[in-house]
Amino acid sequence: AINASPVDGTGIYLASYLQSLTSKLSVGAELLYQSPMAEIQETSLSLAMRYQPSEDRVWAAQTQGSNMLTTSYWRKVSDKCEAGAELVMLNVPTQDRREASCSAGMKYEFAASTFRAMADNFGKVSVLLEERLAPGFSFIVSGEMDHFKGENKFGLGFNLES
Known about the structure:
By secondary structure, the chain is mainly β. It is 0% helix and 77% strand.
């Protein structure tokens, strides 16, 4: 419970349960009850599922309340390359709102650097190159192109790890 006050009946209460049904399949549920004021009360039930048929791939799905569904897929293509995709669907009938987004990305490990790229259905393409110059010290180059908005971003950075 978060900020629970039994006196005036307010607070946030959360209960979660996760269970492995088999070595490859796990399911879970989460119940949220919140009452910011005594006369306002909300509940939400979220469900989740994770399926890993082998060490190199994972399927996952999650609902957030009754309005949002998120699905994802990840695969280790090789020792140096990973790829994934995500689909998010939102349906709020009371607001006459339906939206969906899909994105796909990949990561490739070179000897002393990492390349990441991602694209989505909104016309956004982003890339990042991280070059490890020394242990705990990296140089980063990143860029993003938003084709629908006609905006571009470019960045340079350093990463220090302790």
